[in-house]
Amino acid sequence: MTHPSALKMADAVADHLADPATAPVSPRTTTTERQQLAYGPLGIALLHIERAARGIGPWQRAHDWLTAATRQPFTSGPDSHPFYGAPALAHTVACAADHLPGTYERALDTLDARIATDIRVRLDAAHRRIDAGHLPQLAEFDVIRGLTGYGSYLLRRDPSSSDLYAVLGYCVRLAEPLSVDGETLPGWWTATGPSGRSDERFPGGHANSGLAHGIGGVLALLALAARYGTVVGGHHNAMRIILAWLDRWQEKTDLGVAWPYWVTRAELRHGHLAPSAPRRPSWCYGTAGLVRAQQLAALVLDDTLREVETGSALVAALTERTQLKATTDNGLCHGFAGLAHIAARTGTDAHPATAGQLQATIPALLTAVCPPGTDPATAAAALVRDEEVGPGFLNGAAGIALALLAPATATPSQSAWDSCLLIA
Q1: DSSP of 284-352, one letter per residue?
Q2: Whole-angstrom Cα distance, residue 278 to residue 321?
Q3: CA 399 to each of CA 91, 208, 291, 341: distance values in angstroms, whole numbers, following the listed order
Q4: Tens digits of residue pLDDT in 214-271
Q5: Mind listing the pLDDT tens digit for each residue in 39-59?
């Protein structure tokens, strides 16, 4: 089933963002945010790459945004990460190069060499940290800034590379428990709050569950790598350790189960979660992202029961009023468009017991983005000009338009744009 209004809105966003020289965007998009995958021109280029790969837009638009992004060199080394600098550029360029053989080849070779050097430095520091028995920082391992995000790029670019095997080996070690001051903690426990900084609201730190910043991303990388045939020693056991943790901390909702964004030190010691209001079931944090990670793990572990149970959990999250009420925007990261895209991705791989139910949730999610009576062109113009969210990838217009394409047309993505989210 297609959704014409949502598709027209995505088309209109792409037309407003056709040319960086005339697009109605803030100058910061191509200046201060130039190297940011989340907010800058790279995310807009991804929109045009996906549209060109679908045959509904010209490649020139993608090339123009890449040109706007690369008028100055990109950062590599310790100041870069998967969503900033050379790695972010590499992801975007590789998505285009997949469909344009021979194009951007020299640039990608240069970027890959820089990225390989950075990965090895990060891995060395991470293993020394584990050997010393210290807790990690979120930025060591998460999808946005850490080794899991680098692993997602390597899995696409060179799934047989020694660097990918090394990242996966690190993920296996990360799943092993650490003893700190006589207390056993999961290996991904951090001493800080979710921001990565000391936070008095998190005395003793926390275990982050999210796909973007927590152990959910590590699970997704391990599962995707195994699905594509890249496996290291202890690989499946590491997935089972993470799954057991998620099972331990899942909580019942009105229609199913959900997972917390994190577990605090007090909750760990007490053995149960503190009461909290329902939280949005988003990609970055919450049930939608964690369901996809668990589904991918269940597929490679041949765990049919988990396939069905997690599919049912996502159906509940996408139909339960209390959870959806917590979703207040349309963005890819934690809004309705992102939920529609995850529902489509998850539904494609879902067990027959839940596949139809998941597909049935999509029209309402698309309608939330583009309600009846909305003029798609007017809505797209307002979205592009919204200074709060901007025109970019994670929260803004380009990401919303990208996330709408697959669910609104009932056809899968044609480029690897969402591989950086570790949902495919």
Answers
A1: SSSHHHHHHHHHHHHHHHT-HHHHHHHHHHHHHHHH-HHHHHT-----TTTSHHHHHHHHHHHHHH--H
A2: 10
A3: 15, 24, 21, 11
A4: 999 999 999 999 999 999 999 999 999 999 999 999 999 988 899 999 999 999 999 9
A5: 999 999 999 999 999 999 999
